[in-house]
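BUG: 3D viewer hangs when loading the predicted structure for this chain

Environment: internal workstation, default settings.
Expected: structure renders.
Actual: progress bar stalls at 90%.

Input used:
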Amino acid sequence: MTVQEIWDSGIGLLNLCAVYYVIQLLKCVQISFVIFVFVFLLRKTLLKNKVFLKGALWSLFIPVLFVGKMKFFYENTIGILLFSWWSEICKIYIWINWLYLCGIFIYAAQLFYKKRKLKKLVAGMEKRKMEGTFIYVTKMPVTPSTIGVFKPKIVMPEVILKEYNQKDLQTILLHEKTHIQLGHLLFYFLWDILRVLLWINPLLTIGTRYFREDMEEICDWVTIQKSQRKAYTYGHLLLKSMRVLQAENEDFNMFATFAGDKEYQNIRQRVTKIARYKPYRRVSVISTLIIAILCMVAIIWIQDISYNRYNENDSMIVYGYDGNNVTFFDTNDILQQMISYDDKYAYVDRKAFEDYLQENNAEGDIFIVFGGFYKLPGVGGIGCSCYYEFGSKEQIVKIPYENPMSDWRIKILKML
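Structure tokens produced before the viewer hung:
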């Protein structure tokens, strides 16, 4: 194999991978629109005042990234009509797939740069111990925040440490630790992955604000109950924080958090939600956990009704070729009765097969394609083939063929 042939085959494999993954992601994008509308409507209507259930709704996005290979898109009439058009476009225009992947890379690079910059900033802050917990103290007038996923860090502005009494500081610290304990930092990370991979859906970026608001409301309720303080006192503490920070720096945007997200465009809205606080029972938290578990079970169910990483191809194709054009093409179950094969040979019932060709007016050189595998219907895969030569006197014609499954490129394709 020449260098040019190796290069061409490598480019072909990369293009195939791009098409294979982008087709799946675009299916996920389309489903994510439906899920977002469903979540947004429920959180604004039936579950508006159900703090934990409203927050649990967002876990419905967990299975979305696993729906790309569902058989529904390829075997159901409705699925084919609604979702197959993107697949055909991606197979025809390869550049669209690379454009989509470039979008993922750019979006991910932007988020990574912001997180990296923030991490370096925090690393240079003074480290103190408060109530047995290490915190990072900043002189900037920013709201207390928690950053990181696997090694979370709590950031506190120095002005709040000076202005607040011990009990208020304990409540603020408890709020940040509750974010960590409830797994919110991991949820934010997973949400970032979702909106990076499905970046073409603008609703996911817009929905970041609502997602964080719901997580913040859950954290507020849990903190109030843990601290055993009244909702009024807790809300007053929040307002006091904003006043202290604004007084420290007149240019400070009181609705901005340390991480740079403008979550609190209306602080009154958050205080109003805090005012609705009612002591909750364990069943409320358990119901949230159950929904999350059901979403995980949904992933297993989705895998059961989806195509495997690669799928054995039991179809058989016969076509005629005159050197320039395909003169005959057919695939049906009748061929299975006339042709069989093992790892080295194809076995053809000569009389039945030649009668079949004559009945179908087959012309040109006759080729038989069989076996192999496919990634998704019409996307990726390979089969074995052999040339049928007329003139044999044997009842069963034995035709040797080369099995391409040992090729390294095919092995890589099967693993993807």
